[in-house]
């Protein structure tokens, strides 16, 4: 049985009550570099997004789930499958724990483990990949912990604070 509940967190579909949380994330300039965001989002646009969040992954080609602490409904982070490609059985993965106070508590590890199990066990994906800036040591450690391997480097890929930085592609193949 596929479950999206771990020992201390669970993953759930987005709810209308997540509006302010997503608004805060999408408008946090400190994380725009990892989310490839360049402009702020209005509450109106996020409300529209949430109204369409019920779309099936096969229709939307993405799945965004809220990361919640056990027994606590409010989201503390988001984990995404994006660029879902059912023909080739692959998808990209992104994860964000918003508050620094919730980082380094194994929440990201548990969320990623749940998503990997769901992706391979329920969606029957063959591979997952992640694009990670080479200076993002926490993300590199998280993904390599689960067997993701660096398969390539995109030179000068992201312009961050006026400096071009490399981005690595990590891949996990379901054996």
TrEMBL record:
What is the designated name of this protein? Answer: GNAT family N-acetyltransferase
Q: What Gene3D superfamilies does the annotation carry?
A: 3.40.630.30
Which InterPro entries does the record match to this protein?
Answer: Acyl_CoA_acyltransferase (IPR016181), GNAT_dom (IPR000182)
- Which source organism does the UniProt entry give? Flavobacterium pokkalii
The N-acetyltransferase domain covers: 9-175
The protein's matches in PANTHER family, at most eight in alphabetical order, are given as: GNAT-FAMILY ACETYLTRANSFERASE, SPERMIDINE N(1)-ACETYLTRANSFERASE
**One of this protein's Pfam families, by short name?**
Acetyltransf_3
**Domain of life where this protein originates:** Bacteria
């Amino acid at each position: 049985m596929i479950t999206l509940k771990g020992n201390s967190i669970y993953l759930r579909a987005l709810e209308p009550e997540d509006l302010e949380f997503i608004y805060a994330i999408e408008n946090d300039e400190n994380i725009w570099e990892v989310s490839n965001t360049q402009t702020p989002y209005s509450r109106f646009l996020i409300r529209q997004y949430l109204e369409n969040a019920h779309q099936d992954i096969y229709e939307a080609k993405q799945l965004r789930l809220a990361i919640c602490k056990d027994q606590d409904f409010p989201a503390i982070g988001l984990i995404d499958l994006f660029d879902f490609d059912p023909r080739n059985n692959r998808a990209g993965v992104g994860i964000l724990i918003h508050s620094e106070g919730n980082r380094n508590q194994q929440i990201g590890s548990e969320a990623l483990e749940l998503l990997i199990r769901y992706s391979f066990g329920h969606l029957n994906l063959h591979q997952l990949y992640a694009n990670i800036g080479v200076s993002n040591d926490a993300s590199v450690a998280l993904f390599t912990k689960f067997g993701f391997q660096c398969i390539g480097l995109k030179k000068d890929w992201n312009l961050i604070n006026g400096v071009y930085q490399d981005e690595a592609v990590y891949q996990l193949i379901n054996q």
